[in-house]
Amino acid sequence: MRINLGNEPLSSKTEVETVISKIRDLIINRQLEPGDKLPSERTLSNKFNASRSQLRLAIQKLEFYGIVKRYPKSGTFVSKIGVGALNSMMANILHLQTPDFKSLVETRLILETKAVKLAAIRRTEKQLYQIEKAHEAYIKKSINGQNALDEDLLFHLKVAEASCNSVINSLMLVITPEIITNFVTNKICDAQNFSSLIKEHQDIVNAIKNNDPDQATRSLKIHFKDLYNYCHTN
User: Fold this and answer.
1) Helix (H, G, I), strand (E, B) or coil at 118
2) Are residues 204 and 117 in the same domain?
3) Which end of the chain is more exposed for a tag (fewer CB within 10 A), N or C?
């Protein structure tokens, strides 16, 4: 059966939600059945007239909630759940309240406190190397006076990966794009204080390297003192 995807342009502000709605329509209209493979990313992007980045975010969100499943070298498939259940789940996703920045920060603090502790216990040599390389990239940009926000968040994502907890890692990947968008707006980071931030990162690296979960947790809390203050004063 040929799938009619439509080609009307999407609003950039609601592009992710619009992509999810269109995929939902395909399922409701039985043009995509439970267990079916999604069309290629290029096909969906062209037919939905959506950017590839927003399409990936939409599919990532659907995967997080169990609507679709990605299999390496095979593709992305609609979960084998009844159409009614899929419709209801997707409707709930579309109506979820956009999280406020404080909620995102609180969630990040909870996740990373656990992640850094687990990373100090479970990390592999390869994961330690990736954390160290991310730290070096942050240092390089910071000392050159460049914006190192992306490198800072990449460092923390590498720590989350080293926790070897797939759920923590997935949750970090879900909330990170929203955090990137809001960090500058809320002026949480002090760009002029990069020397202290470098030392704090290094303390975290050292604790993970030494397999010291208690010190890793203490170092993270020192590093996040401004975030803790933000949560308690807003």
Assistant:
1) helix
2) yes
3) N
